[in-house]
Amino acid sequence: MISKEERAAELYEVIRACRLCALAETRTHAVPGEGPLDAEVMCIGEAPGLNEDRQGRPFVGAAGQFLTELLAEAGLRRDEVYICNVLKCRPPGNRDPLPGEIAACAEYLDLQIDLVDPLVIVTLGRFSMARWFPQQTISRIHGKPKVVDGRYIVPMYHPAAALHQGALRQVLVEDFRNLRGVIARARGGDFEAAGAAPAVSAAWEPREAPAPEPGARADGPATPPAAVAALHLPNRTPEAPRQAGPRPPDQEAPAPTEPRQISFFDQDT
Ligand code: URA
Known about the structure:
This protein is of the alpha/beta class.
């Protein structure tokens, strides 16, 4: 039977050669993602930036440096987390992803989630958040975990946002500190909810950017999944999904129980 590593290698090869949208014409390197295929935590950003485009690796610039610090706040080393993006190619000038581009890349992200099957997904910024929380705003729900499809989804501000808006640093640091408690609960198989609100189970459905720009090009392909149809990739039923405990239906998770600590970041930076 084909191994996870072989599946990932095939998927990365397809992504690196992908020409499903116009970003293929302007990229230097596609950036599939990286990290252990048995990672408990997956971080999903927006799209590669300049440094990522040059190196073919996710989060290697200033935002990536900050992400590494944030992961440490959650008790995680970067090399134990799977890191990828909604888009695998850099939009010129780091503009927002277009709906057609998100559609073109959606199947790749589906396959990565199936392959890694993480206990916790951390969305970084509004574009990855929109996949699970399409009607929400990041300022309302950041740091609040929700159980969707039997795993925790935790929406966070994008680390780059804090590089531009200093006040968000502290918010991100505290949200990542609270992530410790979420991970601990997931490891313990605790997916129980308290005060469940109507579940937002948008997984696999939204293919739209949260706020499409007027006149945005819908330049995705007509049938994006065709590019991966020939892959020996999981068919949505991994042979032995790794999970720490029973995964119940979608529900809102209880508030993190980890005590808050004093941040090393100045409040006013
Ligand atoms: N921002 C992202 O969203 N992803 C990266 O890989 C780098 C910066």
